[in-house]
Amino acid sequence: MKRHAAFTLIELLVVIAIIAILAAILFPVFAQAKMAAKKTKQLAQIKQINTASQIYMADYDDAIVPAYNGIGNPFHLTLYPYMKSYDILISGVTAPNAAATGQNNGWDYIWAIGTLPMARLYNLPYWTVVDYPISRALGVVGARYDGVMGWAVPSLDPRWGNYPADSGQAAFPSKTYSQIDSPSEAAIMFDSQDPFAGHVNWSSDASRSIGVCTPGPSYHPGGTIIVGAVPRWGGPQSCAGWREAGGGGSAAIPDNLARKVLEGVAVVTFVDTSTKAMPLSRLYKTEPCKTDPGARCMTYFPVSQ
Asked: What is the pTM assigned to this prediction?
């Protein structure tokens, strides 16, 4: 009787072990390649949004789109007629926010990309970084910074709680392209967890500053947000649980959690439409302020001097 050759049990186990080893090696590589592809797509999408803002500027005498317009829409929705798609507002690692659907047209799409409103919103000459664990990890405590987008809502909305004080500054224009000394070094939009990068305060934290980990509004998809840019590509998606780990509040965040903001990169686009992926330590680079060399000002969020 003719016998057929077959694998022994030992040989089968060796083959299975080899496959398992290869899978353990290759799966992380595939995951990294997938994330890299999503980041590349995000770079293209945020550049498209910025291109739409350039068309807006051409229509509005060189003025940059306001962070919030006169009918109560964030800049994303102001630019919608120039983009004709909500899909380019979605990050590859986020999704439309079902909790916000129906509150305002398109608001469920605006949570992946933010901007920094000008500090004039709170009748301030510039924003100042507070001394909290996150800002210490970034090495930017006390740094001055500002945005380029104005605010076009003349009235206040009490539904938002601790909204900008009624100082007469709730409506003011954005900067114009020609008012910016170096458009290639002025960030206009970036990866964020909030349309206004957490600087329109609706939380119990008194500070609106880089370095704060703050609860978002009830309809926010991320819950607790990192104020400013978020290094979602290879870094933390949010600061959920960080406040609680230290006993509550941004000032109590443990250093090991605060240092997580040094991981990963954020996608950033500048006024001239150049677009890059940058670690927060580079995005928040500081230099001596031109009119006050004893102070530090952020290079990519320039203060009017």
From this structure: 0.83
